[in-house]
Amino acid sequence: MIEAEFEQWKQDAEPALQSKLEELHYMGYESVTIEEIWQCVMAKAKKKKEEPRLHKLVGLILSLTVNDVMNWLTIKAYTEESTPLL
């Protein structure tokens, strides 16, 4: 997967990311950022073997649940905590 292409898609998917951010903030999760939502979506997209298209990424963004995001953030926190700092 081409990282530059994903960065362009991030700009194109900004309205969907903003919408999901507002939804999470409305539900009381004010500490979540657009970058964290994007990283969560990228993690889900990279698990698939095929290269995703923009409309599929937007669909992933809009279908994210609070549980998806919170689970991803928790796992990320544990994995970052367990890696030794060199």
Automatic annotation (TrEMBL):
Alphabetical list of InterPro entries matching this protein: Post-transcriptional_regulator
The organism's place on the tree of life at top rank: Bacteria
Protein name: Post-transcriptional regulator
Species this chain originates from: Fictibacillus iocasae
Lineage: Bacteria, Bacillati, Bacillota, Bacilli, Bacillales
